[in-house]
Design goal:
This protein is mainly alpha-helical. The chain has one domain (26-86). The protein has helices spanning 26-46, 53-65, 70-86. Helix 2 packs antiparallel against helix 3 (70-86). The longest helix has 21 residues, at 26-46. The radius of gyration is 19 Å and the shape is elongated.
Amino acid sequence: MSVPPDDVVPPPPPHDEAPASVVPSAEERQWAMFAHLSALLGGLLTGHWMGIGCFIAPLIIWLVKKDTLPFVADQAKEALNFNITVA
């Protein structure tokens, strides 16, 4: 059995796994909070009108921020998915 040389570097983790040390910036956390709270606000403003207000704002935030802020995109999708399920 052969032993690999000492200068062999292990392969990097797959692209879908973010390093554990990555902390979202204050702007990203703020937009993520807006995505979650906008669903609550949309539900309160539209009342019981088919529950449409609950997922319009998270959808808009996801569409606007999906290419620039991945953490916000993930959280907006989470808010959208949750509110569609509840509605």
